[in-house]
Each structure stands twice: as structure tokens, then as C-alpha cells.
Amino acid sequence: MKKLYLMLACICSLSAIAYAQKTVITGTLESVTPGERQLVSLQKLGWMDRNFPRTELSADKKFCLETETLEAGFYRLTLVNQSYFVYVKPGDELNFEEKSGNVIVSGKGEIPGNQLLIDNQKFQDEFRRLPVEILMVFGKERAERVWSIYCSKIEALEKADVSREFKEKYKGFAGMEYWMNMIGGLGYYKNNRLSSDYVKALQRVKLTENVVNHGSWYETLESWLTYNLNEKKVRLTTYENWLKEKVSLIRDKGLRVAYLVRQIELEVLRGEFVGLPEAVEAVKKMIRKPENQAKIKEQMEVMKKNYTRYSKCLPGTDLGDFEFHDREGKVVKLGDLKGKYVYIDVWSTGCHPCKEEIPFLAKLEKAMETRNIVFVSVSLDTKNEVWQKFIREKNLGGLQLIAEKGFKHPFCATMGMSGIPQFILLDKDSRIINFNAKRPSNPVLWNYLDRIVD
């Protein structure tokens, strides 16, 4: 009987722990426009997860959202037609009550911090309401407006009765918001050169390790690093040293290591394995904490395990016999292109990441038009007319080919393809140099091609 009681007690205890880890977000909204979808959701910043928790308002304009999968951090809480940043951790029970146009936070959790985030949202909204002509130019007016918004956030933080831990996290969060507001769109707008004065204004907020509290820290930092590489602030010397040389632009040691760990994770996730062990070896001395060393080791094990997927297309593999059709329906073999380096873009008209690379590919083609390299785009579209129409509308250059069987084409199986875009680099004998090369938007590729192509 004692054993039975003990077992029941353990079950109850475990249930209590499980319940304590459930995060519950409730509230009531008063200003809801009829006809709108009455959706409430909570999403981790910087994530592309489509399975984030969501619910709908009840008839009396109340909501209750529960989740058990949260990690502590900053999230985006969407209340029908208005979004707020919030700080949530497992076990929180937060309530957001709309009263006279204001949202009041109560319950169990980081209450003062979340009230600060809700109140400070007006400053971020102020940035979004700036005229387009200001947002599309990296000039003095944009810099002054963004600095004013950042200072307002920090002033409110200093007055708020929040914990020291939250204060430090929010400083990093607000700092990354500042950088995002300052360089958002860098690389896409035509006027994307930053003056020395603008760079000085940008660097008024230093990038330190605490910016990782923002879910979009990596993407923003990567945009800044890519810009500096394109501006030749650092000259990459070898493919094995690109990672080491790239992070030399990051002054804060903690942030540098955080970037390295994240970058290596992404290289493995994308299957960009060629040269990765050497690149990792070159930065090992920078990564000293055991927990980070363990993460890198784990990623290298994942790479070794996944390398088998590319067993049919390892460097040196001859792809010359693979054939596709051009726009006139003529058969083109990759072997027909011998004597030139070949950079292959495998894509489709329905692939958004593929289409994002098209402008960069066009720039790369233009930059290397006098060099001994041909740029080939192999579409996996199954409808020829859709492919042809897209090429005409976008005025695509390079050699345009189509694999009419889509992913069922034997080329995809040989290349270990699980998704697109995938970029492949061949030597002058149609043999593979890299089965999953870097994207045209990555200056590392530009640097590498500049060195090897005659």
C-alpha cells in the first residue's frame, strides 16, 4: 500500500511539474473590427515555423492560448490586427486586457517587463509609419529618426521597475531593433551604399553578445557582414579561411562565438559540406567554452552522417552525360560545356528562396561575363509554359534549361537533392568541384570564383 501511495505521489508530482511548464496567455480585446479574422497568435522572433500556437477570439472577445513548447525569450504576440513584443517563459500565466485603447498586463511572469514592451511598441510602430522615401534611403533623416526611437525605448527602460536580468536582455533586444531599423533592406535597395557618417551613426549602438536575445539577430548581423565583404572591408584569401576571416569583422568576442556556432549549424543544415571541416578547424581556437565546443562537435557528427546523401556526387564526379532541354526544345548536355567552368542553379518558378537569388545571380553573371565560366539555370518546373513565361517576364540571362520531370529527373537523385535552390560548381571537364556551392548572394562565392576562374 505504501508503494502505491508513493507511486501516486510521484505521478502527482510529475503532473504538477508538467503543468507548471505550460504557458497560458489570456485576455480580452474591446476594439475588434467586425469581419476580421479574430486570430491571436504567439511566434518566436526570427523563426519560420508555421506551427506556432494560435487561437481565435470567443464571442465575448476573450481568448485563451496555451502552449508547452516555449523557451524563455522574446516573442511576437499578435492580437487580431495589432502585434506586440512580449517576454515569455515556460510556466507563465499572462493576461492582456485592453482598456480604453491601452493594453494592461497582469498575471504570473515578467509583468513589469511585458508592460514596458507593450508601452514601447508605439516607438517601433513610429518607425514603420515613416514615409517610404525615408525608409528606402540610408541617409541622415532615417538615422536621426531611428536614433530618437531607440533613445525613447532606453529612457522608458531606465524608468521601469524591472529586474536587472530583464534590463540587460531588453538592452540587447532594443539594440538589435535599432540595427534592424537602420540597415533593413541593405543589399536590396538600389541606393545601398552607406556613407561614413551613416556608419558612425549605426555604430552608436554597439553589437555585443546580448543582442542574441532578439530572434532576428543572426539575419541582421549576416546582412551587415555581407555588406562589409562586398565593400572589401575584409579580403577573403582562401576557401578554408573564409569563416575565420569573415568573423574578424565582429569585435565582441561573445557575439563572434555565437555567430560561429550559428553559422556552422546553418552550413550543416544546408548541406554545404565541401571545405567545412577545414573552415571549422581554422576557428576552433576561438571557441573555448565546453558547451560551444560540444555544439560544434555535434554538428560535425551530423555532417558526417548526412554526407552519405551525396555519395553519388562527391567532388570529381563527372556530370557530363546529364542532359536537359533548352527554350527551343533542343537537348543540351552538360558535357557540351566542357572547356568552361559551370555554375548551375537548380530552381523553379514556385520557389521563393530561388527567386530571391535571381538578382544576385544576374549581378554575378555581369561581373564575370569576360571570364571562362558559364551560368546555367536548371528549372524543375513541370509545366514548360509557366517556365517560359517567367523567363520572358523577368528577362533572365544565362543558359536556361528545364528538367521536365521535376524532382523525378535522375539528376536530382544523383545530386542528393532534398530541396531547392541548390547550386553546383563544375570544373572545365564537367566534373564536380562542389555539389552544394554557396549562393550568388554570398560574397564568399564571388571571392572563390574570382580566384579559380581564368
Q: How would you explain this protein's 3D organization?
A:
The protein has four domains: 26-109, no CATH class; 126-230, no CATH class; 242-310; 323-436, Glutaredoxin (3-Layer(aba) Sandwich), CATH 3.40.30. It contains 15 helices and 15 strands. It has helices at residues 2-20, 111-128, 132-135, 140-159, 164-183, 196-202, 217-230, 242-246, 253-270, 276-283, 290-306, 352-367, 384-394, 410-414, 443-452; strands at 23-28, 39-44, 54-56, 62-67, 73-79, 82-88, 93-99, 102-108, 323-325, 331-333, 341-347, 373-379, 399-402, 422-426, 432-437. The protein has a five-stranded mixed sheet with strand order 13-12-11-14-15. It has a four-stranded mixed sheet with strand order 4-1-7-8. A four-stranded antiparallel sheet has the order 3-2-5-6. The relative contact order is 0.07.
* Terminal residue distance: 84 Å
Give the rounded overall mean pLDDT.
89
Give the DSSP E fraction (strand runs of 2 or more residues). 15-25%
Question: What overall geometry do the principal axes of the alpha carbons give?
Answer: globular
CATH topology of the largest domain, anyone? Glutaredoxin
Query: Briefly, what CATH class of the largest domain?
Result: Alpha Beta
Uncertain regions: pLDDT < 50 for 5+ in a row?
A: 1-20
Largest sheet: 5 strands, mixed
SSE sequence, one letter per element: HEEEEEEEEHHHHHHHHHHEEEHEHEHEEH
Annotation field: number of helices:
15
> Structural class, from secondary structure content?
alpha+beta
Strand order of the largest sheet: 13-12-11-14-15
Beta strand count: 15
Shape-level CATH architecture of the largest domain:
3-Layer(aba) Sandwich
In total, the number of domains comes to 4
CATH superfamily of the largest domain: Glutaredoxin
The radius of gyration is 26 Å
